[in-house]
């Protein structure tokens, strides 16, 4: 099944989606961005029709993918006046599909990945989370998703939002902790590169084991002497001391985490 698709948003997500869809025989008939400079590096092989005005959207496409910031989705949606038989879907993990319910057929087409413009993305390995307002729209979105990815999952709005908060813990918070580690190394003339094999090994382990089962370090061992020594090293930064202590207690299971549901 080949579809004519309009991408609303020419940032990182919109660009990589357009590229992946084009490579799998779909046609990107138009891309929208408020900033025309976003179109500068998009080759004609991906798309050759652009607009900075929502009022000038191609009205005859079958699918419109909204790849803008979460806050902008509700602003953009009412301005999309196109073929009522078309599916309007956004690409957000945190936004419910119902923000698009002013359209007869709507849904979600969420790629679970962190995108950078210059870094190529292998969509075949990338999870795509799909939801839709009706069975027909869901089937269409699933077919499009399966044409570019081998990891497609239908999820409800609530399931996707829980997945999104999990992704923040797994990706954004983890990366911030790596930034803190980098700072500590840099401030004490220690090469951060020494940590990279350890970081890689940790990431590799969770490919085949539950994270809890491969937890290591002084907290899980109950090595209070090492924990106290680390806290003493952080004496000039009380916020890092608190963070270290809180995470150590969490690892040890001393914090009361109620079911997140």
Written description of the protein model:
With 261 residues, the chain is of the alpha/beta class. Helices cover 39% and strands 14% of the residues. The protein contains eight helices and eight strands; from the N terminus they run E-H-E-E-E-H-E-E-E-H-E-H-H-H-H-H. Strands 3-2-1-4-5-6-7-8 form an eight-stranded mixed sheet, covered by helices on one side. Helix 7 (224-233) runs antiparallel to helix 8.
Keywords:
2 domains, N-(1-d-carboxylethyl)-l-norvaline Dehydrogenase, domain 2, alpha/beta, 261 residues, single chain, eight-stranded mixed beta sheet
The CATH class of the largest domain turns out to be: Alpha Beta
Query: What Rg do the Cα atoms give?
Result: 22 Å
**Quick one: overall form?**
elongated
The amount of beta strand, in percent, is: 5-15%
**Derived structural class:** alpha/beta
Task: Provide the helix percentage.
Answer: 25-40%
* DSSP helical segment count: 8
Q: What's the average pLDDT?
A: 94
Topology, number of strands: 8
Unreliable stretches? none
Within the CATH hierarchy, at the fold level, what is the topology of the largest domain? Rossmann fold
CATH superfamily of the largest domain: NAD(P)-binding Rossmann-like Domain
């Amino acid at each position: 099944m080949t579809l004519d698709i309009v991408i609303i948003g020419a940032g990182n997500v919109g660009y990589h989606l357009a590229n992946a869809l084009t490579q799998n025989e779909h046609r990107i008939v138009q891309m929208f961005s408020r900033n025309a400079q976003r179109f500068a590096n998009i080759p004609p092989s991906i798309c050759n029709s652009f607009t900075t005005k929502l009022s000038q959207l191609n009205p005859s496409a079958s699918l419109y993918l909204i790849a803008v910031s979460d806050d902008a989705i509700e602003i953009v949606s009412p301005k999309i006046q196109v073929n009522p038989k078309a599916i309007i879907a956004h690409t957000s993990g945190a936004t419910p599909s119902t923000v698009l319910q002013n359209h007869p057929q709507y849904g979600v087409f969420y790629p679970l990945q962190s995108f950078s413009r210059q870094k190529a993305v292998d969509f075949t390995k990338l999870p795509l989370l799909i939801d839709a307002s009706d069975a027909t729209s869901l089937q269409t979105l699933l077919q499009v998703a399966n044409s570019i990815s081998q990891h497609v999952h239908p999820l409800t709005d609530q399931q996707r939002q829980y997945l999104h908060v999990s992704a923040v813990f797994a990706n954004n918070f983890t990366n911030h902790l790596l930034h803190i580690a980098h700072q500590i190394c840099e401030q004490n003339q220690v090469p951060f590169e020494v940590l990279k094999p350890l970081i890689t090994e940790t990431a590799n382990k969770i490919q085949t084991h539950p994270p809890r089962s491969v937890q290591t370090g002084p907290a899980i061992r109950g090595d209070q002497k090492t924990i106290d020594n680390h806290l003493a090293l952080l004496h000039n930064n009380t916020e890092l001391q608190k963070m270290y202590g809180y995470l150590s207690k969490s690892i040890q299971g001393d914090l009361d985490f109620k079911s997140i549901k």
